[in-house]
Amino acid sequence: MTEDAPRTLDEVPGWFPITDQELFSWFLAGPAGAASRGDLLELGCYLGKSAILLGRHLRPEETLTVCDLFESPAPTAANDSEVKGSYASLTRAGFTRNYLAFHERPPRIVQAPTGEILDHVRPGTCRFVHVDASHLYEHVRSDIGAARAVLAPGGVVVLDDYRAEHTPGVAAAAWEAVFTRGLRPVCVTGQKLYGTWDDPAPLRDGLRAWARGREDWWMEEQDVAGAPLLRLMFRPRSRVPRQATAGADHGAGAGAAALPRRTAG
């Protein structure tokens, strides 16, 4: 571990709001995680912020696989422009350095376009997939299809940037999956949509009960196309307004964000 390695998750570059850090932990280690079996997969890992948290909830018999281009060429001109514009600082060495500041061993790394992930991860073997790679519609659509293929029964997919103004391709692919490809949303936050291709009721009921039992969570329930959908926000030590504002939790907070780096010994 080098001296300039991050000491807490807050110090790792990236976009991972505290609300989603807490929800990842609930889905991976709470009642939902206890009831599911399988590996973990992240499509698009940047410099490791969310992968580090995934690794925290990795069981001894499980594998965490991350897939990203890193320094490899993008498969299309549009993807190449996206990578150079938003992820110029991404390197495999930088990701690995950050991850190893918190874990003894690196995850399984697939340095390739996410469209090749089915060559590396077997169908029906994952309990949790985080889709956070390209924002281009055709790539996100492909990634959602891959997530469905690799998820085991009861598995959960998380779609990043499903509503950001600069990522309309993600929004199109996400809601297309809901209305035409069988994806069933469980909840949404300011940044991510959580869903499953199985019955969402057990997950939704458990999440609803958990959030109601905590004073630091704000929750509302909406009806979307005839199905309940939870909207959640983690707001520690503050009063939540009646209409919570989007993106209000992008800063650091307590809980998962305080994950310390590992120490030698």
The CATH superfamily label reads Vaccinia Virus protein VP39
Radius of gyration: 18 Å
Please outline the major beta sheet. 9 strands, mixed
Q: Uncertain regions: pLDDT < 50 for 5+ in a row?
A: 239-255
CATH class, named: Alpha Beta
Q: Which architecture does the CATH hierarchy give at level 2? A: 3-Layer(aba) Sandwich
- Count the strands? 9
| Number of discrete helical segments | 8
* Strand residue percentage: 15-25%
Mean pLDDT: 86
What helical percentage do the residues reach?
25-40%
CATH topology-level fold name = Rossmann fold
Span between N and C termini? 12 Å
What does this structure look like?
- With 265 residues, the protein is α/β, with parallel strands linked by helices.
- It is 31% helix and 21% strand.
- The protein has a nine-stranded mixed beta sheet with strand order 3-2-1-4-5-7-6-9-8, sandwiched between helices.
- Helix 6 crosses helix 7 (168-180).
- The radius of gyration is 18 Å and the shape is globular.
- The model is unreliable at 239-255 (pLDDT under 50).
List the helices and strands and how they pair.
Blueprint lengths: L17 H12 L1 H4 L4 E5 L5 H8 L7 E5 L8 H10 L5 H9 L7 E4 L14 E6 L5 H14 E10 L7 H13 L3 E5 L3 E5 L4 H12 L4 E8 L2 E8 L31
Helix pairs in contact: 6-7
Summarize this structure as a short list of keywords or feature phrases.
265 residues; alpha/beta; Rossmann fold; nine-stranded mixed β-sheet; 9 strands
